[in-house]
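Question (not urgent): is this output format expected?
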Amino acid sequence: MQQPVFYYDLGSPESYLAAERVMATLPIVPEWTPIHAAGLGPRPPHTPGDLAARRAAVERRAATQHVQPLRWPETWPDDTRVAMIAATYSKQIGRAVAFSLAAFRQAFAGGRRLDEDTVLIAGAACEMHPRAVSQALGRNTVAGALDAATAAAAPAGVREVPAIVLGDRVWQGEDAVEQAAAALAGASA
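Got this back:
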């Protein structure tokens, strides 16, 4: 069976919750593909009420999934481009899962901004040398790979993160993991 692709952005708390369960829930290990969700197209502006409702919904979902209680970064939502370039580099060197989980946990379990310092801490947690990560952040080829992955996600049908794509099927949003798992389990039966 073809390998599904798990698209995510480190600034998305819904992606964090999906990342914590995608490996154990899907019957096939997905390819983790970081994308910059801001590049998927214009989004309606957020009001403080929208953000508060989103936070509450994510916190309820986190409680039902038995993950650590969420601690929100002070500046959330924030631009995640630097973090997503680091995630792209981690994928290039075979550490996408380890780095992404470490960065997600720094952001949503530790309440840290996804700035360069946090990226370096997450990288160190999965044995990525800080100098190598810092250099990768300045490489146009790594930023270009992130932009290419983001650009390829939209024609694949990705409109939001998290998303799981398998062929021409797309599951996205907070229930993407469970929906994909059910469909994949049915396809392999």
